[in-house]
Write a structure and sequence with these properties.
3-stranded antiparallel β-sheet; alpha+beta; Alpha-Beta Plaits; 28% helix; elongated
């Protein structure tokens, strides 16, 4: 699973193309544009085989060098209410009663979805704070983060988390350092049940749909399906859900996530209109000076 080079596809707050004009010299001496890629990477999470062991939580904390947090008991086996700036991967536990009265224990791995159209990157005004690689990974560069938290408002999955001490925002990187070296993410390595898989987006979609067909044919999960939302043009973390008709019951997974409209308006039309307004104001001042000349102040005439 070699993906040794991480080519840049998009950069937050950056006008024009990606560095080098969007073209990159590969190790085999071939040149590829910024929109080409070896393959899109993808993590597949099969919620029907997750046992809630939390091995992925531990592996994530250990690999990224954070200290273990105190857990919060809230009458469930969930480690804490939500992810945090130093806790990027959380198994969500939800007790659900089916229509026939059967109790169900639903578990979902909550983390950054690495959207193909990332709302965090679209909203971010800081040059280079957020980078999307051509393999689909969306990564944060904290050294360029200005702490505005616009990325938080732009994310439909409530993923980026702000650290009040450092004034920076953090999230899952899909282990871009490991993937760049040809390894799989740490959480994949730790999973004992085969719930987690990693590979190309094409292969993971194939495996996901094969699993859905199996569930529909051999289990009571007749509404099983693949979660790969079109509202953000697909994600690089996809789920097999036992009931894809109601993703909200899996820890509040949004049914139709999309980049918020106000983020799109601020980033594109309103930003352009603001620029036009500033240019029009400067032009108006210049034309006034040309037509009427400098304005004399009464006090200055008397002193003269």
């Amino acid at each position: 699973m070699s993906n040794s080079t991480l080519e840049v596809k998009a950069i937050s707050g950056h006008r024009g193309g990606t560095p080098g004009g969007g073209h990159y010299l590969q190790p085999d001496a071939t040149t590829r544009s910024g929109v080409s890629r070896d393959y899109d990477v993808c993590k597949l999470v099969d919620t029907t085989t997750c046992i809630g062991c939390k091995a992925c939580e531990v592996a994530c904390v250990e690999w990224n060098g954070y200290e273990f947090r105190e857990t919060t008991f809230d009458n469930t086996y969930q480690t804490m209410p939500e992810t945090a700036w130093n806790f990027w991967n959380l198994i969500k536990f939800d007790e659900y009663t089916a229509d026939d009265g059967t109790p169900q224990w639903l578990m979902r791995k909550d983390q950054c979805m690495h959207c193909e159209e990332p709302g965090c990157l679209i909203a971010c005004p800081a040059d280079g704070a957020i980078v999307q690689y051509t393999n689909g990974i969306v990564d944060f560069n904290q050294e360029n983060c200005i702490g505005c938290q616009y990325c938080v408002t732009g994310c439909p999955f409530n993923i980026p988390k702000f650290n009040s001490a450092t004034k920076k925002v953090y999230k899952c990187t899909l282990c871009s350092d490991r993937v760049g070296a040809g390894l799989e993410p740490a959480c994949i390595k730790a999973c004992p049940t085969g719930c987690l898989h990693f590979g190309s987006k094409e292969d993971m979609l194939f495996e996901a749909h094969k699993r859905v067909d199996q569930l529909k044919a051999n289990t009571s999960w007749k509404n099983a399906g693949v979660y790969d939302p079109e509202g953000v043009r697909g994600t690089h973390v996809i789920y097999v859900l036992g009931d894809a008709s109601n993703p909200e019951k899996y820890g509040g997974l949004p049914a139709n996530p999309s980049v918020p409209l106000f983020v799109r308006l601020w980033k594109y039309p309103l930003k352009w209109l603001g620029g036009i307004g500033i240019a029009a104001g400067v032009l108006g001042v210049f034309m006034h000076r040309v037509r009427y000349g400098a304005k004399n102040v009464e006090g200055e005439e008397k002193r003269a």
